[in-house]
Amino acid sequence: MSKLKESGYKALVIIEDIGLLIIALSTVIAISVEVVEMFKALKVTLADLLLLFIYLEVLAMVGIYLKTGKLPVRVPLYIAIVAIARYMILDMKNLDTLRVLGLTGAVLILAISILAIRYGHTKFPYDDTKNN
Questions:
Q1: CB of 46 within 8 A of CB of 89?
Q2: CB 107, CB 84: distance < 8 Å
Q3: Is the pLDDT of residue 131 over 90?
Q4: What's the pLDDT tens digit per position in 86-111?
């Protein structure tokens, strides 16, 4: 039975690596498309820069995962904050007060979550020797 588990684990690792490669390639393609659109428009907006930043964060997250084998929980939270900021910038004229308050509340909750995770990592660091 252990050979079956080991084979299953190896298959999942291969599928995971293929998925990460697809995510990385798709992100590079999306960055390329965005840069081409900026050149066509001869204009770079804050929304464009924030979108490129989101793409770079996704690539960084894939790189960290490939290098360490661990997914940093804070990076998706950073991406979410930038995505909310980008949404607010793009749709500011159409946002009513309640929606703005909801979005800023979401950013506040995400920021507090990041602080709590960071505090937990510094106060209670992982002991990697237990997992080996």
A1: yes
A2: yes
A3: no
A4: 999 888 889 999 999 999 999 999 99
Q: Which two tokens stand for residue 57?
A: 């964060």
> pLDDT tens, 45-95?
988 999 999 999 999 999 998 898 888 889 999 999 999 999 998 888 899
Which residue, among 38, 31, 22, 82, has the nearest Cα to 52 in the 3D structure?
Answer: 31
Alpha-carbon distance of 62 to 126, in angstroms, equals: 21
Give the three-class secondary structure for 69.
Answer: coil
Q: Which domain holds residue 16?
A: 2-130
Cα separation, 64 vs 59, in Å, equals 9
Between CA 37 and CA 39 the distance in angstroms is 5
- Please give the C-alpha separations between residue 8 and each of 2, 13, 45, 46, 116, in angstroms, as whole numbers: 10, 9, 47, 45, 35
Residue for token pair 């950073």: 78
The whole model's pTM is what? 0.78
Domain count, the chain: 1
